[in-house]
Amino acid sequence: SAVISQKPSRDICQRGTSLTIQCQVDSQVTMMFWYRQQPGQSLTLIATANQGSEATYESGFVIDKFPISRPNLTFSTLTVSNMSPEDSSIYLCSVVDRTLSYEQYFGPGTRLTVT
Amino acid sequence: DQQVKQNSPSLSVQEGRISILNCDYTNSMFDYFLWYKKYPAEGPTFLISISSIKDKNEDGRFTVFLNKSAKHLSLHIVPSQPGDSAVYFCAASLYNFNKFYFGSGTKLNVKP
Predict the structure, then answer these.
(1) Average pLDDT, rounded, for chain B
(2) B interface toward A at CB cutoff 8 Å?
(3) Residue of chain A whose Cα is closest to the Cα of B37
(4) Which of A18, A68, B22, B105 gives a 20 to 30 Å CA spacing to A52?
(5) CB within 8 Å: B99 and A48
(6) DSSP conformation class of A99
(7) pLDDT tens digit string along B8-54?
(8) Are B24 and B106 in contact (CB under 8 A)?
(9) Where does residue A4 rank: exposed (0-12), middle (13-18), buried (19+ CB within 10 A)?
(10) Binning pLDDT at 50, 70 and 90, where does residue A87 land?
């Protein structure tokens, strides 16, 4: 399975600021996703990070609020822009390598608190 | 509209007994199903999966059953251990694996 790391692991940010979360995978993977898990909720897909092109966003999520980069097959970033307390959540990076299997693997998550 | 549902938010089981976690889905086109375990402050960990062409998959203490006609899957843990205490998520995917749909999770507590 792929080994996924995320930075930072947690942060406390002020309202109106932005935070960029990094996701690094130890191998090249075909698909990378960004999820959000709000307190007591399920995992909600924010977007699919596409290598070399714009991310594909799910309903309710927009690029201006959650810009995503994926410069290569092992790395992606998610920025949470103009934060409000409602953005307090755990943000998770996940990958699927369809050349190996169909399981989806997750990073350890970034716990964000917005005050 | 949530396409994957876990109707039991919590489950408590005695150590050594069987834990049965349930999951229902609405989309008959789902082709692949997965179970994840999540400890606090960690990302979900892949546990076991099953494709729609099977009705059972077993891995050690963990067995997943799929009933396509009922659009229902379940995870059996036998025997349950205190270390199994975690939140369990079921997930489903279409054939192209471009998107995974997650249930809301069931918190399992295995009592010593």
Answers:
(1) 93
(2) 2, 32, 34, 36, 41-46, 49, 89, 91, 93, 97-100, 102-105
(3) A106
(4) A18
(5) yes
(6) T
(7) 999 999 999 999 999 999 999 999 999 999 998 889 999 999 999 99
(8) no
(9) buried
(10) very high
